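Let us begin with a simple case.
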Amino acid sequence: MMLTEHVRDLRDWYESDFDVPEPDYDEASLNSIADDLNIAYQAKANVCIYYWSDKRVEVHEGLVVDLLVNEQAIKIQADIYNAKLYLQHIIKLDTYD
């Protein structure tokens, strides 16, 4: 029989196997992401963004409605929600019509 502490530790250990490390970009990579977002914003194209949050990857799909240059972030409008996403946490960006 296992103690409660052991069960909790095993669950934590199992969940940590799925942890995704936070992206660590240099300035050139951030500029490339910012350029792609600017193109999508100006073209009013839909985007699919893979976003790092709390050791997991979230997928956000929608329209870039605002570029927040001072905060290095964007506002995205999806069908049922709005989100503010920071450039340094964007893993991948795809644009589509």
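The second case is a distinct protein. As before, the sequence precedes its structure tokens.
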Amino acid sequence: MLWADCSDHKAVIWCEDHGDLAYYHDTTPSAHDGVALDAGDLVEFDLSQEKDLRYARNPERIVRQQYAGIAQRLRSACRVPPRITPVREKLGQVVPFRLVDNGNDPKEALRA
């Protein structure tokens, strides 16, 4: 569980399939009422999909604080500076050839 507000019965859950997050918000009695769930808890729940959102139903804590500090670690990971890719070394210099009109036919120069 990434985030939870027990007083408002809301939570955001990172699913084991690493797909979209699951959202929990329920005002009806559930397993959430008896046990205060918190960020870092490993939970089991029923999953449903409605349009583009995933919803968790009937969450039940399996292990308390199994992933303590997960939200903070994810935030910190986002602050890592991007990896700088070294610029390829200049391997050579391109020299442009200019056509010089010396009165000769260029085709004659190729035949020589």
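Helices lie at 31-34, 70-78, 106-111. The two ends are 80 Å apart (CA to CA).
Keep these points in mind for the review questions at the end of the chapter.
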